[in-house]
Amino acid sequence: MQQEHGSFHHKIVIFIQQYSNQRHRLRPVPHPVPLSRLTDSFLDGTSSVYLEELQRAWEADPNSVDESWDNFFRNFVGQATTSPGISGQTIQESMRLLLLVRAYQVMGHMKAKLDPLGLEQREIPDDLDPALYGFTDADLDREFFVGVWRMSGFLSENRPVQTLRAILTRLEQAYCGSIGYEYMHIADREKCNWLRDKIETPTPMQYNRQRQVVILDRLIWSTQFENFLATKWTAAKRFGLEGGETLIPGMKEMFDRAADRGVESIVIGMSHRGRLNVLANVVRKPLRQIFSEFSGGTKPVEEVGLYTGTGDVKYHLGTSYDRPTRGGKRIHLSLVANPSHLEAVDPVVVGKTRAKQYYSNDVDRTKNMGVLIHGDGSFAGQGVVYETLHLSALPNYTTGGTIHIVVNNQVAFTTDPRSGRSSQYCTDVAKALNAPIFHVNGDDMEAVVHVCELAAEWRQTFHSDVVVDIVCYRRFGHNEIDEPSFTQPKMYEVIRNHPSALEIYQKQLLESGQVTKEDIDKIQNKVNSILNEEYNASKDYAPRKRDWLSAYWLGFKSPEQISRVRNTGVKPEILKNVGKAITTLPDNFKPHRAVKRIFDNRAQMIETGEGIDWALGEALAFATLLVEGNHVRLSGQDVERGTFSHRHAVLHDQETGEKYCPLDHVIMNQNEEMYTISNSSLSEFGVLGFELGYSMENPNALVMWEAQFGDFANGAQVIFDQFLSSGEAKWLRQTGLVILLPHGYDGQGPEHSSARLERFLQMSDDNPYVIPEMDPTLRKQIQECNWQVVNVTTPANYFHVLRRQIHREFRKPLIVMSPKNLLRHKDCKSNLSEFDDVQGHPGFDKQGTRFKRLIKDQNDHSDLEEGIRRLILCSGKVYYELDEQRNKVNGKDIAICRVEQLFPFPYDLIRRELKRYPNAEIVWCQEEPMNMGAYYYIVPRLSTAMKSLDRGTMDDIKYVGRAPSASTATGFLEVHHREHREILQKSMQPEPINYPC
């Protein structure tokens, strides 16, 4: 059927096309398509030519179009004849009205009253002006047919005919009140429709008197707690919540709703702002303990007889509690300790949540939930926020959705938003992950509660992230002794005269008649009475038990308790059995030819018991731990294959692309997550933080993170500095996390050589001038250190150091300078007998089969070798090159010992070797520049050991290695080779090395 240019429906097409072209590029629409699909895409610039074609088709044959369009056209025809009030209405007007509705859904938040101070000057988009769509005041009381729109959620109370005034009123109420919703960026139609129904369905957002009294009680607790601290400790920093007190009732209502929807445990992460209030009123840390910390802090160890570590400021501490909910359930809350690096705790919380889901068999991820409380400046400004969000849907990192709450006080330390971010909202980064964002005026108590409950429902319904942005203010400065008017004079002039959220809510309830003045006074008197009672009790408060570790950690030792040393060897028959399991592939699996050769070679290694390489040694460690019932998890960039194509833990069928992981089949009916190896996103900070949080939940797991190259670990430096190196000392929280950092000088340039060994050793906490107790039955050296740093040179020793992480009564982080060229080095091999627990085999000594902290010279030297002129101490792969050079020059008067464990320093074994070679010149040899590597760490400790034997002083330790350098390594291969030759030649030269340290 021909369509004339002047026809009515052609004008509709022209109107929509012109409107769309002003805003977006046109996109094609599939055919046929329901009305809801097309109308949802009008504002996205969908080609409206489709509408013209559709109208033609319907006129020719109503059955040729989707039923929704047939109903649409029929409804207009019917309404025109049965409703005189809209008899002149056209389809064009209806479409224009639809565009106006959609504009409110997309941009209504720009008109919402979000700023409690009224200072924010936002330009209201023209799209929200009815005049843009051709409507005038004369149209306000005209009736329009809107029944067909109920499929998109708008005005779903089954009133198909409404006036324009009623429609606009409802739109203003839904989208432009105290809440601004951002959700139209979400591509999933089900999610959008769910939110539309929640937002647009006109059920009054009101709570009955009973609920309002509960909310009021919680708001009074939040407010009075801050007032009490301000009165008792006027000069103390507490980073109070004044101006954002509605956070506390909002969180508590959120948790109540989450519990009603099946959540049993919540892991919380937040920075300092409002933390004490959350600790006291949400997580319920004893008030007397908080007040005691203000009055002088936790008693020293000698007074209470408990291990307290170094401690931390009170607004960094964490705790946990089983809290009853309003619905009569109990929910476990844990607030993770954190440093001042505001958002660094985010991935730690997510990782801990994922671990809780694993250990509680929470397959649907509905019982354990993470909640992160952010600041507005840090949410927008710190990259780890995006790194954490980016993990949200990755299979081995997802937690089924994290709820993000932004305490948006509209100013960071002293920085205004216009200087702190480039986007309209601080939360815009979350839109990249299709998370809905609920902006809410922090002075509207019931609106805050509503969005917090809505966030909990979203998370439990769609198992994805959601953001609540509480727009509030900060009544005082960054801390209570800071003067904010220096930098925000106008804002603080308003704040000085602005009523608190409690005053506003009390007035609202009194005016509505829901509560009386007596009701309010009764609650306030109760709260003040309890605060004073707890304050008086705090004066005599002392810890009654160690706030040490969670239930999974019961029985584990603190640094002041001696832990027995355990063997790590495995019975030969178990090694053979697991070795066969992890080298056998299914008959119908088609691996790559090169991978098939690798697995055939591994099977041969197991069969003969000889030539075990690095990758197989690692796999045997994993497999034997799995057999013993432990969880093993390894993640990082490219860990499935291995950066250096050595691990091949996950194989790919070359015909179907299907994956196969041999370590998933070590035991019968093995849980599919018992062994988890996963390539991560290209993130160091976020993923390492995730694995740290994961490792903190349960000690019976070997949790590892591997850097693509060790050099890249500096992208996660905050996790090393603030969590891993000092977490136990500050927060009494142990972790056995293993860090694998490929390290070694192979001529690959400055960013592919050094894992910055010196940084980890510099953060190590022993005294270089005191030899600790080294008797094996009394030794607590590792327990008293903050972590372990090793540079291992044999597959067997790597096997044992990994198993040692599990087979002891405490946990310590392990930093492994892992190899690159040793992965295939002809001499870096071990025999299977070095892995077993049979007496008389090479790995067995007086104490059993264990990790060797120092490997003595491979030659069969006696306990006393007076003819050795030089003792070279080294660490890592340079040993093999030194040994090869020694053979070339026939250096039989040179001994080479490998220090496998650098920290804690093996004083006992070093002294043993010094006694063995009483006349030897002492040399430390390393690949790294003098100002890097282990040199500056080794020298004072080696000197202490020498002095204890009258073997000389620090000046008697000779250095062989690269010269001091600003760069970790040269980028010129020829220079690298020259430097390397000089190191080897200097180490073996016949005359004494003529320069001291």
UniProtKB/TrEMBL annotation:
<dbReference type="Pfam" id="PF00676">
    <property type="entry name" value="E1_dh"/>
</dbReference>
<dbReference type="Pfam" id="PF16078">
    <property type="entry name" value="2-oxogl_dehyd_N"/>
</dbReference>
<dbReference type="InterPro" id="IPR029061">
    <property type="entry name" value="THDP-binding"/>
</dbReference>
<keyword id="KW-0479">Metal-binding</keyword>
<dbReference type="GO" id="GO:0005759">
    <property type="term" value="C:mitochondrial matrix"/>
</dbReference>
<keyword id="KW-0816">Tricarboxylic acid cycle</keyword>
<feature type="domain" description="Transketolase-like pyrimidine-binding">
    <location>
        <begin position="612"/>
        <end position="825"/>
    </location>
</feature>
<dbReference type="InterPro" id="IPR005475">
    <property type="entry name" value="Transketolase-like_Pyr-bd"/>
</dbReference>
<dbReference type="GO" id="GO:0030976">
    <property type="term" value="F:thiamine pyrophosphate binding"/>
</dbReference>
<comment type="function">
    <text>The 2-oxoglutarate dehydrogenase complex catalyzes the overall conversion of 2-oxoglutarate to succinyl-CoA and CO(2). It contains multiple copies of three enzymatic components: 2-oxoglutarate dehydrogenase (E1), dihydrolipoamide succinyltransferase (E2) and lipoamide dehydrogenase (E3).</text>
</comment>
<dbReference type="GO" id="GO:0045252">
    <property type="term" value="C:oxoglutarate dehydrogenase complex"/>
</dbReference>
<keyword id="KW-0496">Mitochondrion</keyword>
<dbReference type="InterPro" id="IPR032106">
    <property type="entry name" value="2-oxogl_dehyd_N"/>
</dbReference>
<dbReference type="Pfam" id="PF02779">
    <property type="entry name" value="Transket_pyr"/>
</dbReference>
<dbReference type="GO" id="GO:0046872">
    <property type="term" value="F:metal ion binding"/>
</dbReference>
<keyword id="KW-0786">Thiamine pyrophosphate</keyword>
<dbReference type="GO" id="GO:0004591">
    <property type="term" value="F:oxoglutarate dehydrogenase (succinyl-transferring) activity"/>
</dbReference>
<keyword id="KW-0809">Transit peptide</keyword>
<dbReference type="Pfam" id="PF16870">
    <property type="entry name" value="OxoGdeHyase_C"/>
</dbReference>
<keyword id="KW-0560">Oxidoreductase</keyword>
<protein>
    <recommendedName>
        <fullName>2-oxoglutarate dehydrogenase, mitochondrial</fullName>
        <ecNumber>1.2.4.2</ecNumber>
    </recommendedName>
</protein>
<dbReference type="InterPro" id="IPR042179">
    <property type="entry name" value="KGD_C_sf"/>
</dbReference>
<dbReference type="InterPro" id="IPR031717">
    <property type="entry name" value="ODO-1/KGD_C"/>
</dbReference>
<dbReference type="InterPro" id="IPR001017">
    <property type="entry name" value="DH_E1"/>
</dbReference>
<comment type="similarity">
    <text>Belongs to the alpha-ketoglutarate dehydrogenase family.</text>
</comment>
<dbReference type="GO" id="GO:0006099">
    <property type="term" value="P:tricarboxylic acid cycle"/>
</dbReference>
<dbReference type="InterPro" id="IPR011603">
    <property type="entry name" value="2oxoglutarate_DH_E1"/>
</dbReference>
<keyword id="KW-0460">Magnesium</keyword>
